[in-house]
Amino acid sequence: MAGGGQFVYDALDPSGNTIRLLTLLPGQFSDKVYLSLTHESFQDKKRTPYESLSYTWGESQTPEKVYIWQNSPANVSNVSNVNSLQFLHPRTNLLTALKYIRLPNTPRVIWVDAICIDQDNITERNQQVARMGQIYSYAAQVLVWLGPEDESTSMALETIERLSAGILLTEDHRNCKTITGSEAEVAECRFEESKFTPQHWTSLNQLIRRPWFERLWIRQEVQLASKVLVRCGYAKIEWGKIEKVIIFVEQKVRRVYFRVQDILKCRSLFHYIGSNRYVYVPQGTILSNLSLILYTDEEFSTVKAFLSKDANKTLALFPLKFFLGGYETQIAPVNCVTSTPIELY
């Protein structure tokens, strides 16, 4: 690798069929973060197994550095002077996530948009954004990073674990029922006798109101994934358990502890099996006012997207099937051509 300094990306294959993968070197939380970037072709039959990170960018950029090898083997033991390595300054939330998900003894291969895409290269950024559906669907697992633990996290995850153990989803994931004698059944049928206190419900509410749930792109990231694992600090929980609890809360629990909009927002992240409800998201489009409304198959031919006067600058339209629980929704507009990275992601 060349001498140290601000990281300079090697260009990807101009065909657009290549992505970068990040290998996060092992270490403890307090250690410096070292990683390597390699190019991976989607046309290769044997692709390197990797995970994708779903997270919020956040506003602040940390002064701390992550040190990077590029297209060469990374070996921290041979680093006598970190100043010989190139570096990036990641945003605070991403740096925190990397430190928490880093394994102590084994490298971890992941795809992270802020690092694996050259954010200053608009042409590359547009190509890579168009591939994000493939990137997340090809990943062995999507890691959802909600942020570090706080004082309510442990109780929230305990609530999800206990409730989900007594919930059965219907085959199409539209409804649920509770197992006789389970804590979920008591909460449904005899709420006042439930062992779940107001603190349990409040902690769950606080979890689903974390900033990650506000992001536009999370629907694509989790719905295209073959497997999703949620991380909150070192704590983790299966995505399927959260799905059970959200559907349960939507249908079976008093709303006194939850805002309707928060429940519907979370419900929209989980698709109906065999659903016939779609929403089309124009990608690569300059939009200033776009309303996206769900339609059945019969109504689908009359889907209306209200574009701004800049709609003629559309680069491409591609369909993303979002299964939003049968509720009308509005998704904030995205300007994929001129948005800054923080606006886009």
Widest sheet: strand order?
1-6-5-3-2-7-4-8-11-12
Principal-axis shape: elongated
What is the multimeric organization of the chains shown? single chain
Largest sheet: 10 strands, mixed
Mean pLDDT score, rounded?
A: 79
* Percentage of residues in strands: 15-25%
**Radius of gyration, CA atoms, in whole angstroms:** 22 Å
Total DSSP helices:
11
- Name the helix and strand elements from N-terminus to C-terminus, one letter apiece: EEEEEEHEHHHEHEEHHHEEHHH
Would you give an account of this structure?
This protein is of the alpha/beta class and 345 residues long. Strands 1-6-5-3-2-7-4-8-11-12 form a ten-stranded mixed beta sheet. Strands 9-10 form a two-stranded antiparallel ribbon. The C terminus is likely disordered.
SSE layout and pairings?
Elements: E1 5-6, E2 18-24, E3 33-41, E4 51-54, E5 66-70, E6 86-88, H1 92-101, E7 108-111, H2 113-116, H3 122-130, H4 132-138, E8 141-145, H5 153-164, E9 167-169, E10 176-178, H6 183-189, H7 198-208, H8 218-223, E11 228-232, E12 235-238, H9 239-252, H10 260-267, H11 341-344
Parallel strand pairs: 1-6, 3-5, 4-7, 4-8, 8-11
Antiparallel strand pairs: 2-3, 2-7, 5-6, 9-10, 11-12
Helix pairs in contact: 5-7, 5-9, 9-10
Keywords:
two-stranded antiparallel ribbon; 16% strand; elongated; disordered C terminus
Summarize the structure.
With 345 residues, the protein is α/β, with parallel strands linked by helices. It contains 11 helices and 12 strands.
